[in-house]
């Protein structure tokens, strides 16, 4: 077994010729034609347990590789790996790798599930005192009669400090646009077996109850970054309203994570990333607001033509900015920050202590500020709504830290009540914000007072019900 640290970068196919001619590459490289077959059980037990198994053929040589899932998953991968030569295309599963022990009797069901064919070019690049293997893979994944092109760079650290990976990535991006890759080839193969979704929702964050604060923060941020990049990739291929919505959700989750972990983060880093993410969120938000507004307008609405033009302009701005160096570097900077160990205080303390303290704080704020919700100003209600979103994301980030039966039961009730309150506040916010959105384009409209009163009453009732719910976290002390 050997550790592997690599930075994966996505590159668009039209830029590969420019990379091959890039002056930062040494003249010497080698080219390999690779054919890899990936294996799993029919019910994907290996993938479910965080492992991949492949046999890769290069010429007459075959190598079997077992990989444990990457730690992080936001571009930077650090994985355990078991390699061994094999003679045929049948996996060898013995005590030289963990597969047989992992699957038990189910190991007999192992079978091919998809293949990957790539042309690989390899360079050894010196970046300062570090040595980095730069790999360019161009090819295709085949699964279930479907295919998906591969075009990616992998920077694998051979010697030196991991920061050199990011220095090289920035040098490449100064001439050739690249973005952090968040999917391994095995993940892409598994996804190809299923229908490609129109958007990617947040995946569960599963932290061990004993996880420390430093590890929990990296895991939470990596999950949010992954959600953003998956949806950004869909948007860059073809604009989809739901993908934009989920990209915006991912940005909100990133900002909420920075807020929830505020006591243990350096102020300068936190403020820097919050500022950039706020800008990106506003950019996505303008387009999303127009998408929602147009969904609510009837086909014969006199404002529709003006709004459709504004929507088209907002979509174009989104795509222009998503293709910008500012957004690409924001993502690479975030990945590097996570790799550097960003938690500056109490990194080794139990994450559950911090989680309980922060969740308790936001629950109390909502209970206090949300009293007599129907009498608050629109701005004050919006502040309650933002707190509710932060608390909802926090419940998703930290829920697995409180895994006893009673805690799980309380969490289910707590989250359900919180979601009901969010839904009512969201409907009220849409009603109030629609005239403001219209006003930006010289249009006038006013919400129905009857509908507004009904939504206010429903929101106040949902807030009162939520305030009666008990927190699902333990009464943690010591932070």
UniProtKB/TrEMBL annotation:
Highest taxon above the source species: Bacteria
Signal peptide segment: none
CHAD domain location: 210-472
InterPro entries noted in UniProt: CHAD_dom (IPR007899), CHAD_dom_sf (IPR038186), CYTH-like_dom_sf (IPR033469), CYTH_domain (IPR023577), YgiF (IPR039013)
Domain CYTH, residue spans: 2-196
Pfam families: CHAD, CYTH
Gene3D superfamilies assigned: CHAD domain (1.40.20.10), Hypothetical Protein Pfu-838710-001 (2.40.320.10)
UniProt xrefs under SUPFAM superfamilies: CYTH-like phosphatases
CDD domains for this protein: CYTH-like_Pase_CHAD (cd07756)
Name recorded for this polypeptide: CHAD domain-containing protein
UniProt lineage: Bacteria, Pseudomonadati, Pseudomonadota, Alphaproteobacteria, Sphingomonadales
């Amino acid at each position: 077994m050997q550790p592997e640290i690599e930075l994966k970068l996505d590159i668009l196919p039209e830029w590969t010729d420019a990379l091959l001619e890039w002056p930062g590459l040494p003249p010497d490289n080698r080219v390999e034609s690779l054919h890899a077959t990936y294996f799993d059980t029919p019910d994907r037990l290996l993938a479910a347990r965080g492992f991949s198994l492949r046999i890769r053929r290069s010429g007459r040589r075959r190598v079997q590789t077992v990989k444990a899932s990457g730690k992080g998953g936001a571009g930077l991968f650090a994985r355990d790996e078991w390699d061994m030569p094999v003679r045929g295309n049948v996996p060898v599963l013995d005590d030289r790798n963990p597969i047989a022990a992992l699957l038990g009797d189910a190991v007999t069901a192992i079978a091919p599930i998809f293949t990957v064919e790539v042309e690989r070019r390899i360079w050894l690049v010196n970046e300062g005192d570090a040595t980095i293997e730069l790999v360019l893979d161009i090819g295709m994944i085949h699964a279930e009669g479907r295919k998906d092109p591969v075009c990616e760079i992998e920077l694998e650290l051979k010697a030196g400090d991991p920061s050199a990976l990011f220095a090289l990535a920035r040098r490449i991006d100064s001439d050739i646009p690249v973005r952090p890759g968040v999917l391994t080839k095995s993940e892409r193969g598994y996804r190809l077996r299923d229908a490609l979704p129109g958007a990617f929702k947040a995946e569960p964050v599963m932290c061990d109850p004993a996880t420390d604060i430093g590890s929990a923060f990296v895991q939470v941020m990596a999950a949010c970054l992954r959600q953003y990049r998956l949806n950004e990739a869909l948007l860059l291929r073809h604009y989809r309203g739901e993908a934009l919505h989920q990209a915006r959700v991912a940005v909100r989750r990133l900002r909420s994570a920075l807020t929830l972990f505020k006591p243990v983060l350096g102020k300068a880093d936190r403020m820097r990333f919050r500022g950039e993410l706020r800008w990106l969120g506003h950019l996505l938000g303008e387009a999303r607001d127009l998408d929602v507004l147009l969904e609510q307008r009837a086909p014969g609405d006199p404002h529709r033509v003006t709004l459709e033009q504004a929507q088209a302009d907002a979509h174009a701005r989104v795509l222009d900015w998503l293709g910008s160096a500012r957004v690409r570097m924001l993502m690479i900077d975030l990945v590097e920050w996570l790799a550097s160990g960003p938690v500056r205080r109490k990194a080794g303390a139990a994450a559950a202590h911090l989680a309980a303290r922060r969740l308790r704080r936001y629950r109390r704020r909502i209970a206090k500020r949300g009293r007599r919700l129907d009498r608050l100003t629109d701005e004050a209600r919006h502040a309650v709504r933002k707190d509710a979103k932060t608390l909802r994301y926090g419940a998703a980030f930290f829920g697995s830290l409180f895994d006893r039966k009673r805690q799980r039961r309380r969490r289910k009730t707590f989250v359900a009540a919180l979601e009901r309150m969010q839904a009512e506040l969201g409907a009220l916010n849409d009603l109030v914000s629609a005239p403001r959105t219209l006003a930006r384009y010289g249009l006038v409209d006013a919400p129905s007072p009857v509908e507004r009163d009904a939504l206010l009453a429903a929101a106040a009732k949902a807030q009162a019900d939520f305030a009666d719910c008990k927190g699902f976290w333990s009464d943690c002390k010591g932070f």
